[in-house]
Amino acid sequence: MANLKDLAEHLGLSQATVSRALNGYSTVNAETRRKVQEAARLLNYRPNTSARRLATGRAGAFGLVLEQSDNLLNDPHFVDFLSGFTQELAAQDLDVVLTSAEGLATYRRYASTSKVDGFVISAPKVKDARVAALTEMAFPFVVHGQTEADAPYAFYDIANERAFLDATRLLLNLGHRRIALINGPADTMFARQRLDGFHKALAEKGLPPDPRLIHHATMSEDEGYALTRQLFAGSEAPTAILCSSTLQTLGLTRRLREEGLEMGRDVSVISHDDGLSSMKTENFSVPLTVTRAPIREAGQEIARMLVALGNGASVETQQKTAPVELIVRASTSAAPQE
Amino acid sequence: MANLKDLAEHLGLSQATVSRALNGYSTVNAETRRKVQEAARLLNYRPNTSARRLATGRAGAFGLVLEQSDNLLNDPHFVDFLSGFTQELAAQDLDVVLTSAEGLATYRRYASTSKVDGFVISAPKVKDARVAALTEMAFPFVVHGQTEADAPYAFYDIANERAFLDATRLLLNLGHRRIALINGPADTMFARQRLDGFHKALAEKGLPPDPRLIHHATMSEDEGYALTRQLFAGSEAPTAILCSSTLQTLGLTRRLREEGLEMGRDVSVISHDDGLSSMKTENFSVPLTVTRAPIREAGQEIARMLVALGNGASVETQQKTAPVELIVRASTSAAPQE
């Protein structure tokens, strides 16, 4: 296996010329490029990645920083996202660089040292400091979700507000009036969007929101369980619950069973469904009515957007809000007669 | 912000000398090293990662290739592994490079182009071709689990055989004789090890294994459900079930409920528990008896092993089999009287 030096010596050319020829630079004439490429084949030349990256100025990788404080990695949804993201990039010979950190320092360092060509910003806050910092550095990134920002930025979001508006309307049309919301963390944008949709639907019926029925929590089985217990502890228990993730709904299901309540008869439930491959909402004891948007597609689409930005696309052309399906199954029914 | 060229010009030294000084090479004398480092601070020098990596010959990253055929990424267990692995490396300023591929070509290419300094081999087969290939290339790797190999290799495994031996013994001591096993995929080493433990315990009581009670499947809720249905469809239903993952046990639980069977009374169940943060086995409707080994620790330990190999440790010093706890909760009880 030949390296760049071997190849340059064999051809009687400088290493710089050989490198440029291999990378298709037009400053090297076509005949030389052809000769170099033929020799590279004959001598079984393998480029050193670091050398090639130094020559092209590209890392050939996109970064994802796992924040230790948010529980992204406690979350099976994230696996499906990562699967779509990694496969889409791998098809173009591009890598995913993962690291784990707190705060902005890692983003700045990876950008300034060309470790990656761009970032995914996961689980954006309502006003996300990472977005402001990367915009100021003019470093490419795509937000998975949206945030409040002063300048346009690339993002892939799902229609969270619309989805929870439609889901709440369905429950209202079934006659429910005491509807609870088990939402994502209060500081995330998607939770804000879902709360807005929920409020809008209530407002359409002239119903004021009841703060005792609205809760924010992480996407875990435990939290779904604990909040459902809390909801049924008081005298004003809900007749319907909207839940922001399949895992929370799993805990909710456990608690309803302990309360002796049957989902779809005593309590109506609508869950958000990220299309998880490991746990299907149609397979719950009572098949779930869901707002559904496969998170795997978000991973694929964000990969494509990052590549597009790298190829010079403007951020304004890389903004997408995907629709969310409302799928009605057995966990929703008419409100019990009082 | 100064680059290497700026710094070299400022100091009147060659770029090679400055680079070596910054990377602490002893071929540059101490006084020059000191001068270079001081100037780097003053001029706010940021190394280009590709350049530094070219100089040191290290990628500063370890690779994990997601095989498209095995469903590693359908698996929430993998998230906890990745979390431990990434955080441990990040603490040492090392990255994780993820890609997705089939077969050995990617391993060869990443190794030969120095994209990474070593690999994790996940979900090894009974005789794993990746291990043979990387051993032949003398490229560093740590296997998460074990495989049949001709030469020693670095690995981190858990005591799968012992765990399932102990679990089966517990069920036998409770008087169970028709014990089913819902195992991992038949071609994986961990499933083979668990089957061996199961067989040994039966043999100790002089019981022949019943092939109708032994099944191999992927680690999903669906499979746990389908196999449990199958187990109770015939006339020779089991009184106890060993299950290889929390997700399979989730499906098993769903099916037992549909069968009108109560776990811990009508049917005893022991599940393997990877210590998932998103779904806890003590929170199942009937708290589960489990064989427990947190997969997050595997991620951390394998990260440390890869770093050690990179620093020259021999593979023989990087071999570890972690113990597995048997935790008895409410899902196991004495076999029903016939």
TrEMBL record, chains A, B:
InterPro entries: HTH_LacI, LacI/GalR-like_sensor, Lambda_DNA-bd_dom_sf, Peripla_BP_I. Residues 2-56 form the HTH lacI-type domain. PROSITE patterns: HTH_LACI_2. Pfam families: LacI (PF00356), Peripla_BP_3 (PF13377). Keywords: DNA-binding, Transcription, Transcription regulation. GO terms for molecular function: DNA-binding transcription factor activity; transcription cis-regulatory region binding. This is HTH-type transcriptional regulator RafR. It comes from Pseudoruegeria aquimaris.
